[in-house]
Specification:
With 210 residues, this protein is an all-alpha fold. It has one domain. The protein is built from six helices and two strands; from the N terminus they run H-H-E-E-H-H-H-H. The protein has a two-stranded parallel sheet with strand order 1-2. Helix 2 runs parallel beside helix 5.
Length: 210
């Protein structure tokens, strides 16, 4: 996210109407790329960090994780019975289904990872924006955020989105944004099978819990 005024800024956001391919491409180059890239960067850390830096780091990770979940699972469906973790969004929100035709049908498929994704979003919703009794006790072994397992839960649907957007031929998703998604997927592939990769946030990693 930059301070530069991109081409996407000229759009009237007072009411939703289908967005043009050029607008979506420009937007994804600036904002989808930013969120994916920051999610990848904050999923791992460079040691050493002091307590304050660790806290800022893990909160940044949780924030970008939540944003990417909302992007992937967001929908404008009017159904009152959405399959969680599908999320109803506002007209001004930009979501994955705008970049891939038929994405709503893909979301309708229940995945083993969906429950984990829903739990991650619920936790980020509460802990990032609320002083709530649902914040976990420091002695709770599930209190630390484990970025490796969190990202792993997103890999199946993120890979589906990447491949579908790449093959669509619509060019709504900018190549730079697709490259950022591929970099995140490659990172996940490189640590697959590692319960707690060195340098990743989590109980044995350097990041403090919220």
């Amino acid at each position: 996210m930059t301070n530069n005024i991109g081409a996407w800024h000229s759009r009237d956001i007072m009411a939703f109407k289908p967005r043009e391919t050029t607008w979506l491409s420009n937007y994804s180059k600036e904002h989808v790329l930013y969120e994916i890239d920051l999610l990848r960067r904050t999923a791992s850390v460079t040691l050493p960090l002091n307590d304050f830096e660790r806290q800022v780091h893990i909160e940044s990770f949780a924030l970008h994780l939540r944003t990417v979940i909302c992007f992937l699972y967001g929908t404008r469906s009017t159904s009152r019975k959405l399959v969680k973790p599908r999320i109803k969004v506002h007209d001004d929100d930009v979501i994955a289904e705008e970049f891939v035709d038929g994405w709503g049908g893909i979301l309708a498929t229940v995945r083993p990872e969906d429950a984990t994704v829903q739990d991650l979003k619920n936790r980020a919703d509460k802990e990032l924006a609320h002083l709530t009794e649902l914040r976990k006790n420091p002695l709770n072994p599930t209190k630390p955020w484990n970025s490796a397992s969190a990202i792993a839960a997103l890999v199946p649907i993120l890979r589906q989105f990447h491949d579908a957007a790449l093959k669509s031929g619509q060019k709504r998703m900018h190549p730079d944004a697709l490259a950022a998604i591929k970099a995140l997927l490659d990172l996940c592939d490189s640590i697959e099978g590692a319960a707690q990769p060195p340098g990743w946030t989590g109980e044995t990693g350097p990041a403090a819990p919220i």
